[in-house]
Amino acid sequence: MSKQRLEGKVALITGAASGIGAEAARLFVEHGASVVVADIQDELASELIASMSSDRASYRRCDVRDEAQVAAAVAYAVERYGGLDVLFSNAGALGPISSILDLDVAAMDGVLATNVRGVAATIKHAARSMVARRVRGSIICTASVAACVGGSGPHAYSAAKSAVVGLARSACGELGRHGIRVNCISPFGVATPMVCAAYGAEPEDIEANSCAVANLKGIVLKARHIAEAALFLASDESAYVSGQNLAVDGGFAVVNHSYSSASF
């Protein structure tokens, strides 16, 4: 059996009923963690818990837009499993896909409520628990390559994910004195259920589009790859990594594609 990289740790994962969060939940349990699956998709979450067949995984309904529910989810993790070592603040919303000229500002408020206020609430309450219990914890936030490269995501979503990166860096500056690490993961285009639904496309269509514009060829980005990055940041292997935005994008965000594709 491979090394259990999260043996004895307790993790709370938001947006964990599907997509990246579900893959992370499975992987964390595989590596010895006790995991609270937090989401608002009751049926999908129940199916996920059943599929893992482990008493180290349980579901807690949590809408991250409601701070009281976030606080209750953290309290549940502590009560059920004895503490909280890892927060993967992954719940998100893609929001309106439109020209900036036609942006629905009211709809943008909903994106910010989930992607920014929700992340802030999860960091706040997870960190309170970690500080009170003197846990040298790891907080991981899902950002996006859209926070790094303009034009690679919808406007409201790009603004929200940029805010997540800034929020994580700010929290890192304060929480480091308590031994708590705060990092982000910025995925490239992954064919999650949320993305497929937003674009009205099948997973293979999203993957084909991502592969067409990707810098790193020969591999299709999957939710599992993002979960593996989260596993690294949750584990003691990243014990001195904090304040970073780990782009899982095959180099997309750092390459001038127009220049690199030029003929010489």
Q: How would you describe this protein?
A:
There is one protein chain. The protein is 46% helix and 14% strand. Strand 4, helix 4 and strand 5 form a beta-alpha-beta unit. With 264 residues, it is an alpha/beta fold. The protein is built from 9 helices and 7 strands, in the order E-H-E-H-E-H-E-H-E-H-E-H-H-H-E-H. A 7-stranded parallel beta sheet has the order 3-2-1-4-5-6-7, with helices on both faces. This is (+)-borneol dehydrogenase.
Written as H for each helix and E for each strand, in order along the chain, the element string is EHEHEHEHEHEHHHEH
* Tally of helical runs: 9
What assembly state would you assign to the polypeptide chains in this entry?
Answer: single chain
Estimate what percentage of residues fall within beta strands: 5-15%
Q: What would the average pLDDT be, to the nearest integer?
A: 94
**End-to-end C-alpha gap:** 50 Å
Question: Which structural class should the secondary elements be placed in?
Answer: alpha/beta
In the sheet with the most strands, the strands line up as 3-2-1-4-5-6-7
User: Helix coverage percent of residues?
Assistant: 40-55%
Organism: Salvia splendens (Scarlet sage)
Enzyme class: oxidoreductase
GO molecular function: (+)-borneol dehydrogenase activity
Keywords: NAD
